[in-house]
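Input (structure):
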């Protein structure tokens, strides 16, 4: 092969390789640009759908506060007489038979399974209160020992025994009761803020915290055990609208 012919063949091969590489690069570059274009379009659509004043479902940009603080009391078991239970709801004509049949329905009170789960939840809270449990909401967060003292009652008791001769022996013992208070828990008071969401037409309740109460049968009254709050902001809101007024 002549030198000139060899040179032309070499130039042809180099040119062919160059254009092949160029078009291959251009092909992948176009694919990449297409992907970037799709990504930019998707981001633009997302930004447009979340413009200020146009929140999506559940958004809070259109929420109007109804009340900053509301207490929602929930009774877990019936602790009142038949006449007082139904007198206020204009159902005093209900027969005793109907009352006994309906009093423990799940939609109104907790059943045995619900109470078991509640007791387990309270015990978990007592064992590990963290920094959200308060015996006194106007003070500092309670320590684990302070929380336990609210549900475990300890005292010195005297036990009397007699021997075979009839002689009495009295001994003092320090004993604790960790069952009664937990089993007597019968009311939860939820601390809430209420809002109206115009985007969804829903009245929304924002949970700030709750308090746990024991029912004392012989006094026919409730005893507050402790309060639990979602965070420091919720605590300050509850103090501002409720606990500060109670302390005055």
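Output (sequence):
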């Amino acid at each position: 092969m002549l030198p000139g012919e060899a040179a032309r063949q070499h130039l042809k091969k180099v040119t062919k390789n160059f254009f092949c590489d160029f078009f291959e690069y251009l092909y992948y570059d176009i694919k990449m640009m297409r992907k970037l274009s799709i990504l930019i379009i998707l981001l633009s659509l997302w930004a447009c759908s979340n413009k200020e004043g146009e929140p999506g479902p559940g958004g809070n940009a259109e929420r109007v506060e109804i009340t900053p603080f509301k207490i929602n009391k929930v009774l877990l078991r019936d602790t009142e007489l038949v006449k007082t239970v139904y007198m206020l709801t204009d159902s005093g004509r209900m027969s005793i038979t109907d009352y006994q049949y309906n009093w423990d329905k799940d939609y109104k009170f907790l059943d045995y399974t619900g109470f078991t789960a509640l007791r387990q939840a309270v015990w978990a809270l007592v064992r590990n209160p963290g920094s959200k449990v308060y015996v006194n909401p106007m003070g500092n967060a309670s320590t684990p020992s302070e929380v336990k003292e609210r549900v475990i009652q300890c005292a010195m008791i005297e036990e009397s025994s007699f021997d075979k001769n009839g002689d009495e022996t009295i001994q003092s013992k320090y004993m604790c009761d960790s069952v009664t208070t937990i089993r007597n828990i019968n009311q939860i008071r939820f601390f809430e803020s209420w809002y109206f969401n115009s985007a969804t037409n829903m009245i929304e309740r924002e949970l700030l915290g709750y308090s746990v109460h024991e029912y004392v049968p012989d006094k026919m009254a409730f005893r507050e055990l402790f309060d639990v709050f979602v965070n420091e902001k919720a605590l300050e809101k509850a103090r501002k609208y409720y606990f500060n007024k109670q302390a005055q």
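Notes: Residues 213 and 224 are 4 Å apart (CA to CA). The chain is about 40% helix and 30% strand.
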